[in-house]
Amino acid sequence: MSLGASVRFQSGTPVSLYADNNRYRGQFVTYLLPRGSGGHLEPNYFGNISISYAYPLPRELELEFTARLANLTNAKAVLRVDETYSFSTTRPIAGGDLEDLKHAKILSPSAPTSFFRRDIVPRQGNFGVQTVFQQPIQAQFEVRLRF
Question: DSSP labels for the chain?
């Protein structure tokens, strides 16, 4: 018989601000501000326990039964938020912070004639909305035949 337990603690994930760029449209790969400028998510944790029993069979066979409870405390932390700040095309603000967003301009589609337009980069409505959550308490059962 085997007993097991584990605890995992994770610091909060950094939140970045992404925008579109003119080379890879629709992929939102441009960091509008340096990575993690949007703050951090709350830290999260979970604990697991398991019990296992191996039953010997003839001819060197073994039958093992395992039961696990994952996320024993049923914690429901937020693991990810929508980090796409804007659907507009723009360039990164090197060394910027959240105060610099009010000055960020939309990149002009005709860059050779005018580099930036006069419009401020608009924030899209889902920025910062929680998208991925920690899985609730789970039970897992296994039966293994070893030979």
Answer: -EEEEEEEEEPPPBP--EEE-SSSTTS--EESSSTTTT-BPPPEEEEEEEEEEEEEETTTEEEEEEEEEESTT----EEEE--EEEEEE----TT--GGGGGG-EEEPSSTTT-SEEEEEPPPPTTTT-EEEE----EEEEEEEEE-
